[in-house]
Amino acid sequence: MKPGTRALGVAESFGDGPRSTLGGAVVRADRAVEAFEFGTCTVGGTDSTAAVGDLWTRLDRPDVRWLLLAGIAPAWFNVLDIRSLGERLDRPVLAVTFEASDESLSAALERELSGDALAERRATFERQPPRTRLHVDGETLFVRAVGCSDDEAHEAVRAFTHEGGRPEPLRVAKEAARAARAFREREGGRRR
């Protein structure tokens, strides 16, 4: 992959409030950070897919080739529809997770939710591609990919992972989301 290839990493940070902060970071394969964008989604809601799509649109960077997401269920089971995002953005979308869960997301959804809330999230989750295992820098990652083959997805994740087993766009996006959430919480406290 060329050093100037760009990915948007999106990660979340949530505190005690009803909204989770989404941080987006455009990072090149050579680790240069070029841009940030932010958004929010509802903790326990169903608006994360729209929120990520809107973040992408506001960013307005047609040169970004990949969208990397930190997981598939941010903000307490606000399940992302990566197939829908791939169609909307016309780019490969990769949801990367870092833990081999003993319990599937489906089982966690059933334990925590019921009725229509469970049915909607389960339907979204079941439409997504399966995870594939990837070993990078001594770490095991799990990748769901749309808009590209699993081999292409693995190549992209490796190209953006320089150390520690975390793709740089996701690492930077997580730090940005944390900082933005902390800022919002401090500013919100000052307005009272």
Give a description of the structure.
This is UPF0215 protein N0B31_17795. It comes from Salinirubellus salinus. It is a single chain. The protein has helices at 48-59, 74-77, 82-89, 105-112, 115-126, 150-160, 168-191, and strands at 6-13, 19-28, 33-42, 64-70, 93-97, 132-136, 139-146. It has seven helices and seven strands; from the N terminus they run E-E-E-H-E-H-H-E-H-H-E-E-H-H. The mean pLDDT is 94. The longest helix has 24 residues, at 168-191. A seven-stranded mixed sheet has the order 3-2-1-4-5-7-6, sandwiched between helices. It is of the alpha/beta class. Helix 1 packs parallel to helix 3. It has one domain: archaeoglobus fulgidus dsm 4304 fold.
In short:
With 192 residues, the chain is of the alpha/beta class. Helix content is 41%, strand content 28%.
Sequence-ordered SSE layout with sheet pairings:
Elements: E1 6-13, E2 19-28, E3 33-42, H1 48-59, E4 64-70, H2 74-77, H3 82-89, E5 93-97, H4 105-112, H5 115-126, E6 132-136, E7 139-146, H6 150-160, H7 168-191
Parallel strand pairs: 1-4, 4-5
Antiparallel strand pairs: 1-2, 2-3, 5-7, 6-7
Helix pairs in contact: 1-3, 4-5
Features:
single chain, Endo_dU, 7 helices, seven-stranded mixed β-sheet, UPF0215 protein N0B31_17795, alpha/beta, 192 residues, archaeoglobus fulgidus dsm 4304 fold
Mean model confidence by pLDDT = 94
SSE succession: EEEHEHHEHHEEHH
The coarse silhouette is: globular
For the biggest β-sheet, the strand order reads 3-2-1-4-5-7-6
Instruction: State the share of residues found in helices, binned by percent.
Output: 40-55%
* Total beta strand runs: 7
Largest sheet, in brief, is: 7 strands, mixed
CATH C-level label? Alpha Beta
